[in-house]
Amino acid sequence: MIRLIVADDDPFIRESLKLILNMEPDLEVVDACSDGEQAWQAVGRQEAVDAVLMDIRMPGCDGVEGTRRIKRDYPHVSVLILTTFDDDEYIIEALRAGASGYLLKNLPPERIAQGLRTVCEGNLLIHPDIAKKLASLIGPPPSANASVSRPNSVSLSSYGLTDGEQAIVRKIADGLSNKEIAQELFLSEGTVKNYVTSILGKLNLRDRTQIAIFYWKNRQFDESRSRADRAADVEPLRPAMASRKEPRV
Fold first, then answer.
1. Closest by CA position to 65, among listed 39, 26, 30, 32
2. Helix 128-137 crosses helix 208-234 at what angle (to 10 degrees)?
3. Which residues pair with 101 in a beta bridge?
4. 191-211, pLDDT tens digit by residue?
5. pTM score, whole prediction
6. Residue 12 is inside which H or E element, if any?
7. Could you give the CA distance from residue 240 to residue 142 in angstroms, rounded to a whole number?
8. Which of 15, 61, 95, 119 satisfies CB 3.0 to 4.6 Å to 100 for a cystine?
């Protein structure tokens, strides 16, 4: 049973979500709140909370600050952001604060329920475009390994990742769940989980969100370096072309 808290400033939406989600046999809404601070307090008050379904824009303490407080004090609790619009900046701030992903409110109830199950399994719900923006706004995750902490690393293999682990990293960056990765790579779900654990250990990262950010930062650097290399290859030819004299007839 997944025990969860719903936080939304609209009482109609809040109570509707509570009613709908409680109809799922594996979900139980143990509390409903009107802002991020109440959600944070509810996590501390209730026993064994697994997840918070958090509206991103609420008066007082919004979803970003609520997420930040919850992940600071209760890092085991998954936070799934719920929004009525694709507000990139708010979503990015929430992900930076530790949210496991986001969904739009206009999705059917079964999609929201499945999203909660996904994040509670330790998976990530994030569009690749949002991961790219997030990677460009923040630095690399802290690491005890100096070679891992540098943003200018260009090869996943240079971090000690095997070919299989690199494939898993790419799939996570594309937003796939463990089950989807297992299906695409013809692996068991347990094997994928073992891969993820190994990747987190090798890279000294905290969660799947950081794996996605790590991948996109490396990919962005690779693309920048490739453009620079192409420019360097062309540049030496320019003086020779400019100094070439027309043949005499």
1. 39
2. 70
3. 80, 125
4. 999 999 999 999 988 788 778
5. 0.64
6. helix 11-22
7. 47
8. 119
